Amino acid sequence: MTVTDNVYSNNSSNAAYTSPIIWSPQSEQYMYDQSVFMQYGVMDARFLNQPGRQGNYSLETGYSMGQLTEGVPTPVSKISYNQVTITFNGYGDAKQLTDEKVLNSFSYILTDIQRNAIGAMIENRESVIVTELLTTTTTGIYPNSRTSSTITSADTFNTQIIRDVRKAMIKSQAKRCSAIVISPDQEADVLALPNFVNASQYGDNRIIQTGEIGKYIGIQFRISNFITSATENSITVYKAVALGRRPFVFAPKRRFEFAFEREARRDRAVTASWWEMFGVSILWEASVTVLTTA
Question: Which range marks the domain in which residue 282 is found?
Answer without folding.
Answer: 15-56+83-132+249-286
